[in-house]
Amino acid sequence: MRDIREIIIHCTATPRGRAVTVDELRRWHRAQGWSDVGYHYIIYLDGSVHAGRPLATPGAHCRGHNQHSIGVCYVGGLSSDGTTPLDTRTNEQRLSMTQLLRLLRHRFPNADIVGHCDINPAKACPCFNVRREFGGLIEST
What is the pTM of this model? Predict the structure, then answer.
């Protein structure tokens, strides 16, 4: 298994309520020349968690950090206008994200949980403050 140092949270940058599947993300990412979907986990609007890349395979989600990270992405991240960054997570997505992060921190206790924007401030992704929301999870694990 890879040495996991970060769990990086992303959004699909799609409008509130627009469903996106792993297969659709895979097509988008392959069109950019990537070998597969860039994330390891994708959380759908209904809160279901879907596998992307295998954990043993580095992702393609955060330049310079892929080798030692896991990419978790929720569907959404833009207001209904499709341009304004916004935390659009459903209650189900919030619950599933918390559960998934707890499991990942149990498996990788030294991994820091960060948002894409914490690494690349030019990005709004994931459109919420990861450190504020999951700081307690980080400290309690």
Answer: 0.95
